[in-house]
Specification:
- It is a single chain.
- By secondary structure, the protein is α+β, with helices and mostly antiparallel strands.
- It has a single domain, classed as 3-Layer(aba) Sandwich (Glutaredoxin).
- 27% of the residues lie in helices and 18% in strands.
- A five-stranded mixed sheet has the order 2-1-3-4-5, covered by helices on one side.
- β1, α1 and β2 form a beta-alpha-beta unit.
- The radius of gyration is 13 Å and the shape is globular.
């Protein structure tokens, strides 16, 4: 199983008409192409992942863990996701989550459901 990044672009995430920052889907797709990540790190734009109150949610998935991150409201958050993907594609094993994203980690449970 390849590591994977799942980015929500569902009912709330990226909806600027609802006051949420845009999810930079085109920039993420371009980064996957530019750094040739597709062969080693899967990338999926998903429908609603569920924890809507955390808006702009993504998951970083490895063979050992699934890390939920939310409230991604700055480009640097998405740049950090790309950096994580580059690092894990080069190392071939689990890598630490970038410092920029550590405060964005959450555990999805009933308090996050819309």
């Amino acid at each position: 199983m390849h590591p994977s990044v799942v980015v929500c672009s569902g009912c709330c995430c990226g909806r600027v008409d609802r006051g949420h920052p845009e999810v930079p889907i085109d920039a993420l797709n371009q980064a996957w192409e530019k750094y040739q990540l597709a062969e080693k790190v899967d990338f999926t734009i998903s429908g609603c992942l569920g924890p809507c109150s955390m808006h702009n949610v993504s998951k970083l998935i490895t063979k050992n863990e699934e890390i939920w991150i939310g409230e991604l409201n700055r480009q640097e958050h998405y740049d950090a996701i790309v950096s994580w993907a580059i690092e894990i594609s080069q190392s071939g094993s689990d890598v630490k989550i970038p410092e920029t994203l550590k405060s964005k980690i959450f555990t999805p449970d009933s308090k996050y459901l819309a």
